[in-house]
Task: inverse folding
């Protein structure tokens, strides 16, 4: 086995251009399991853990509208501590990843590239409208997260490309994430759901995990809810949501899924559970929005 | 490859290392440090928890090649020459050990917690140990030991004792 140890980002891109068959390794929390069990023997490993640029995050200039650029190699534990306030949905999802030891190593870039249908980081990124920065020695491009995945463990990455960073718009309203598993730690999701309210744009974002070959948004549910909220002037004068609206939202979320039976759960259970998660997370997010609107209103009057 | 790394403050070298083997294998089989235990080899059980650059990780999920020139701390490095560390002492006192297989990993995870969080709540202790499985004792004695170690640490670092 060859083990390539690029010292910086340009060396990493050059190495990948020269050895397109090289398998990148960052936190190793997925790949090392395959190596330990002899399920995989890559000819070449490309170790990205020394590339400092991947371990940094920054705020893009305000002109680009409050976007955080997260280096692909920032581990979950740092995402929680350092950008959790700006990206609450992502932080909630990150807290459900593995265990402290896993969160200290595992990275969002690895989560994207592994492209498991059950990747915990994907739904909140989709709900936030995040974009993946993809780079090669020849060019760079950005891909909306929802379009990054092409199938189970498949992505749009060309063989000479690496993920540089993920650009995530800062939250401008409440965000929620919920995950079904057998315990709170160390579980691969049976299914997950993320919702993000975007009051400034008066839109709603969603993300569904582990209930289709790739993570996806429930676009019809988003459009339905945004239309309902606009029609009833709910963004400015929020009141409790009618049951019928919450139920229809959940129904449209369920309609967006294409689950299978597997060792972690049946398709039928996933479908049921996602309806419950959609109702709950929307309930929590809306409650938070109403409370914050009330507080803002009171401050406005004083 | 020849692997150079620092373990428990001492520079160490291992020869003929396959880059794709785990740091855990290097520690146990090449460097004679069998304290970190090998159980699941997939990051589930936490028995191989070590410090890598000061952060607790599963040694089974670190490729040997990634450990080149890095600093590793194992359970063997917790105690001084002749004195157990606060977590080790507390595990003995509380009887938080039965078969002992999970103990090294728990000690490193608990050591990290009490160094990071003064006076951790039970919820914080449970969260910090969520990646370490014990199949003998149940976790009550372990919780007790970590509470004790944290209290001990707080007591010795603030003059007025425990707040």
Result:
């Amino acid at each position: 086995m060859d083990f390539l140890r690029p010292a910086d980002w340009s060396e990493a891109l050059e190495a990948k251009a020269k050895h397109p068959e090289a398998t990148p390794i960052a936190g190793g929390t997925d790949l090392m399991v395959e190596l330990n069990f002899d399920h995989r023997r890559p000819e070449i490993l490309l170790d990205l853990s020394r590339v400092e640029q991947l371990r940094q995050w920054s705020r893009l200039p305000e002109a680009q509208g409050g976007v955080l650029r997260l280096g692909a190699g920032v581990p979950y534990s740092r995402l929680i501590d350092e950008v959790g306030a700006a990206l609450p949905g992502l932080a909630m999802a990150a807290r459900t990843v593995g265990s402290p030891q896993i969160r200290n190593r595992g990275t969002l870039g690895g989560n994207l590239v592994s492209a498991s249908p059950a990747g915990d980081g994907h739904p909140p990124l989709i709900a936030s409208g995040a974009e993946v920065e993809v780079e090669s020695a020849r060019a760079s491009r950005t891909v909306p997260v929802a379009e990054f995945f092409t199938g189970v463990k498949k992505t749009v990455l060309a063989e000479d490309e690496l993920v540089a960073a993920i650009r995530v718009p800062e939250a401008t309203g409440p965000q929620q994430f919920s995950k079904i598993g057998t315990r709170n730690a160390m579980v691969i999701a049976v299914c997950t759901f993320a919702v993000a309210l975007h009051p400034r744009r008066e839109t709603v974002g969603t993300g569904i995990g582990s209930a289709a070959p790739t993570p996806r948004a429930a676009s019809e549910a988003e459009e339905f809810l945004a239309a309902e909220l606009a029609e009833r002037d709910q963004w400015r004068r929020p009141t409790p949501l009618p049951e019928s609206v919450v139920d229809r939202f959940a129904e449209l979320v369920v309609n967006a899924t294409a689950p299978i039976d597997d060792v972690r759960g049946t398709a039928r259970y996933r479908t049921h559970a996602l309806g419950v998660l959609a109702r709950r997370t929307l309930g929590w997010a809306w409650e938070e929005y109403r409370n914050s609107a009330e507080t803002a209103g009171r401050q406005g009057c004083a | 490859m020849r692997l150079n790394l620092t373990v428990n403050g001492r520079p160490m070298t291992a020869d003929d290392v396959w880059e794709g083997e785990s740091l855990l294998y290097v520690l146990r089989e090449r460097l004679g440090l069998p304290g970190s235990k090998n159980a699941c080899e997939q990051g589930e059980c936490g028995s191989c928890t070590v410090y890598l650059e000061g952060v607790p990780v599963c040694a089974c999920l670190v490729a040997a090649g990634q450990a080149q020139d890095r600093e590793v701390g194992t359970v063997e490095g917790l105690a001084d020459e002749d004195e157990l560390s606060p977590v080790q002492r507390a595990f003995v006192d509380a009887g938080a050990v039965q078969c002992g297989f999970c103990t090294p990993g728990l000690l490193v995870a608990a050591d990290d917690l009490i160094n990071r969080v003064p006076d951790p709540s039970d919820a914080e202790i449970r969260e910090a140990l969520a990646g370490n499985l014990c199949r003998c004792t149940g976790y009550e004695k372990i919780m007790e030991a970590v509470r004790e170690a944290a209290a001990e640490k707080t007591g010795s670092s603030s003059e007025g004792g425990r707040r």
The domain at 175-301 of chain A is CATH 3.30.390.50 (Enolase-like; domain 1).
